[in-house]
């Protein structure tokens, strides 16, 4: 973006400098530059490159499509329409009853059907369902952003990060899990006992590194046989994490392989994002 800036003026040299640095960084956190990344020069303020390709008289070296054309050409994500219902709660408030907001991650929701609020396992019923307008809608499907008026639970008993789900298949709630983690900008070494804050879907939880299990080799992703004693910036590891907030009551998550949006997370410490990760294994109390 901002290729129209007076210090840049659609310079191919500056464009290559920026995309080269960004590609190197993204490659370091697991992206494949050849298959996962596509760069194009644009100017959001002047709208050049947004709806229509940048004119040749402005940027003669560019052959990229417009941003919207490229987005339209991308393969649509597969929606879990026939899977059990899951919706992380992003916000809650009172308005003629208990209201919650969130994005449906799988399944379909309808009025007057019973659902389960996790992790407190309270049965609730949908009394009103809203989309992007003030008009009620009869149902909503995976991918929709919705507002719900629910019965059976009070607003103060709900927190962002709780999950409304189907009683037939409640979301998993665990306090210990294994994850594949890429360390980004971390100031010191990381070892067992390291504390930080995890952001996963709408939930924010304090976690501790219970154990470092494997180091992953760059390029191959092969696991080390010996557990590393510590990890540093740029390393990829498999670790066991433990939720320590809420007296270790746990967090509603799924493995990345089954539900990507409920299985990927970021770790932050001292106001900085220090790592990204994905849940690979859930450890229930009886197995811990």
From TrEMBL:
A biological process (GO) of this protein is: nuclear-transcribed mRNA catabolic process, deadenylation-dependent decay
Q: What broad class describes the main subcellular location of this protein? A: cytoplasm
Residue ranges of every copy of the Translation elongation factor EFTu-like domain listed in the record: 97-165
What are the alphabetically sorted keywords of the record?
Cytoplasm, GTP-binding, Nucleotide-binding, Phosphoprotein, Protein biosynthesis
Which SUPFAM superfamilies has this protein been placed in?
EF-Tu/eEF-1alpha/eIF2-gamma C-terminal domain, P-loop containing nucleoside triphosphate hydrolases, Translation proteins
Q: Which Pfam families match?
A: GTP-eEF1A_C, GTP_EFTU_D2
One GO cellular component term of this record is: cytoplasm
The residues covered by the GTP-eEF1A C-terminal domain are 177-280
Could you tell me where this protein is found in the cell? Cytoplasm
Q: Per the record's keyword annotation, is Acyltransferase included, yes or no?
A: no
GO MF annotation list: GTP binding; GTPase activity; translation release factor activity
Judging by the UniProt lineage, the source's domain of life is: Eukaryota
Any keyword Chaperone?
A: no
InterPro entries, per database record? EFTu-like_2 (IPR004161), GTP-eEF1A_C (IPR054696), P-loop_NTPase (IPR027417), Sup35 (IPR003285), TRAFAC_GTPase_members (IPR050100), Transl_B-barrel_sf (IPR009000), Transl_elong_EF1A/Init_IF2_C (IPR009001)
The protein's name? Elongation factor 1-alpha
């Amino acid at each position: 973006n901002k290729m129209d800036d007076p210090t840049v003026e659609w310079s191919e040299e500056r464009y290559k400098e920026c995309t080269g640095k960004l590609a190197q960084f993204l490659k370091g956190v697991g992206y494949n530059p050849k298959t996962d990344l596509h760069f194009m020069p644009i100017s959001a303020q002047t709208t050049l490159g947004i709806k229509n390709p940048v004119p040749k008289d402005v940027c003669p070296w560019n052959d990229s499509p417009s941003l919207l054309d490229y987005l339209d050409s991308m393969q649509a994500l597969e929606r879990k329409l026939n899977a059990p219902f899951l919706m992380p709660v992003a916000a809650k408030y009172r308005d003629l009853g208990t209201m919650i907001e969130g994005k449906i991650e799988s399944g379909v929701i309808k009025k007057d059907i019973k659902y389960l609020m996790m992790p407190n396992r309270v049965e609730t019923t949908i009394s009103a369902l809203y989309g992007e307008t003030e008009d009620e809608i009869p149902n909503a499907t995976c991918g929709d952003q919705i507002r719900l008026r629910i019965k059976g639970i009070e607003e103060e008993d709900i927190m962002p990060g709780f999950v409304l789900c189907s009683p037939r298949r409640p979301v998993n709630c665990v306090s210990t899990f294994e994850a594949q983690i890429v360390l980004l900008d971390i100031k010191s070494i990381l070892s067992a006992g390291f504390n930080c804050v995890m952001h996963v879907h709408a939930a924010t939880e304090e976690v501790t590194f219970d154990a470092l299990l494997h180091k992953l080799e760059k390029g191959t992703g092969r696991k080390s046989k010996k557990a590393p004693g510590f990890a540093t910036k740029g390393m990829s590891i498999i670790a066991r994490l433990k939720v320590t907030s809420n007296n270790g009551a746990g967090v509603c998550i799924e493995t990345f392989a089954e539900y990507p949006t409920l299985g990927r997370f970021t770790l932050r410490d001292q106001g900085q994002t220090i790592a990204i990760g994905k849940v690979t294994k859930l450890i229930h109390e009886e197995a811990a």
